Amino acid sequence: MAPLDDLAFFQQLARAGSLTATARELGLSLSAVSKRLKQLEGRLGVSLAARTTRRLTLTAEGERYLSQGGLILEELKELEAALSDSTSQMLSGRLRVNATFGFGRRHIAPLLSRFRTQNPGVESWLELTNFPLNLSDHGFDVGVRIGAPPDSRLVARRILANRRVLCASPSYIKRMPGLNVPADLTQHSCLVIRENDSDFPLWRFERCDAPENVQSVKVSGPLASNDGEVITRLALDGHGVMLRSWWDVNEHLASGALLPLLPSWQGVRADFYAVYEHRRHVPARINTFVAFLADQMAGRVPALPQG
Questions:
Q1: What gap in Å lies between CA 222 and CA 219, rounded to an integer?
Q2: For 48, phi and psi rounded to 5 degrees?
Q3: Model confidence over 158-174: pLDDT tens digits?
Q4: Which residues, 6 or more positions from 85, have their beta carbon under 8 angstroms from its beta carbon?
Q5: For the chain, which ranges sit under pLDDT 70?
Q6: Which domains are assigned to the chain?
Q7: CA Rg, the chain, in Å?
Q8: Are 246 and 163 in contact (CB under 8 A)?
Q9: For residues 292 and 18, what is the distance between their CA atoms, to the nearest angstrom?
Q10: What's the CA gap between 216 and 213, in Å, rounded?
């Protein structure tokens, strides 16, 4: 069992990020943690990390030992859980999920709450970030993101059909300049999301009767924010045109608080996917949670209107 103990030790060391933090979490002295790491490296014959008391930087060998060792430990936990739960069929183990702030707050958090109620044996953790995080680097089991990932090491399942919708409030539409083709947006007050001062927002559209006809327009306006909810509020208050996801604005469109624009054109698809790492044996809690998201999301967001 010594190799498995070493794997678990190194996993904790990598998550803690330093010898000092690991010593504190394990209730050991700093010298004891340092000695154990040296013994592990001696047994393997490679250097796993460059370290000071405050920071740990994994070598290439350390990264490999961490990632592949994590899969071994995960499979062991899953095997033990499957054996112990074979009579009750109860899911167990830890489920770590990453999603972006807006969609994560609105939909993933309540669905994770419901999933946890149905599966009390699953220890759940949801981390919301501005941008999707790399699953393996940050120890996540499932990521929720826009678009299927190009990484072939990830399995992706679509959980929501979505596209961006050009819209504005009735008060803005009454006084707005003409808008017949996407290029006309250069004459409009466009409400854009900016992450920094150097951004030049580019809005992309597909012609409804010829999706291969894609046009891109650089837009600008006197109001901007780094937060999508702020942009929606500004649009509702009549300050301009915005391009926002269907999931975010469908209720305002249904109520008439916002109206769709450019009926011959539509924003490009921005479907949501649940992604997880491809492995020989995917834990049941991951498969079940991803299937749960796909099933439940249909009842939370109306189907996309046909363009």
A1: 11
A2: -95, -25
A3: 999 999 999 999 999 99
A4: 91, 92, 121
A5: 1-2, 53, 78-89, 196-200, 307
A6: 2-80 (1.10.10.10), 90-162+271-297 (3.40.190.10), 164-267 (3.40.190.290)
A7: 24
A8: yes
A9: 37
A10: 10
